[in-house]
Write a structure and sequence with these properties.
Blueprint lengths: L1 H4 E3 H6 L1 H10 L3 E5 L2 E5 L2 H7 L6 E6 L5 E5 L5 E4 L2 H21 L1 H4 L9 H10 L2 H7 L1 E4 L3
Parallel strand pairs: 1-2, 4-7
Antiparallel strand pairs: 2-3, 4-5, 5-6
Helix pairs in contact: 5-7, 5-8
């Protein structure tokens, strides 16, 4: 069924401007180039798709009173003197990792232990704000 929705890459190339307008104002496109199948959409559409993904962390209160947050979706851990500082550090770490992942996408997206990070990477890149990312992390209490 999806094959019926596919537009040929040569036609998309010829009508690039109108295809872009259509993607922005009407709907995403499925594009076929030889054996390759692509999805072309606006960032807003991708943001909507990724709403179902959220960052969550286990919160640990350390002996010195500091807060450690351990991200569940990606192996990242940050500590701060309070939860706000820990969230900000975690937001920065998530965005930094997302940038690294994107720069090394060909390698990371094919690594069995990193492939499942893909939606979280794009969510962080689209959010593009460490503070906003940190504030969005849902925290669960852990036991030390």
């Amino acid at each position: 069924m999806m094959e019926l929705l596919m537009e040929k890459a040569t036609q998309v190339r010829k009508e690039w401007s109108s295809v872009c307008d259509s993607v922005l104002h009407e709907r995403p496109k499925f594009i076929k180039r030889t054996r390759d199948r692509l999805w072309f959409s606006s960032v807003e559409t991708m943001e909507e798709i990724l709403k179902g993904y959220s960052f969550s962390a286990v919160r640990y209160i350390e002996d010195d009173g500091s807060i450690t947050l351990s991200l569940m979706e990606i192996d990242l851990i940050e500590n701060g003197k309070n939860e706000q500082e820990s969230r900000m550090a975690l937001g920065e770490a998530i965005l930094e990792y997302a940038m690294e992942y994107y720069e090394n996408y060909a390698l990371y997206s094919h690594s069995p232990n990193r492939k499942q990070h893909i939606p979280y990477i794009f969510k962080a890149l689209i959010m593009d704000d460490p503070k906003r990312i940190g504030e969005s992390v849902q925290c669960l209490d852990g036991k030390n």
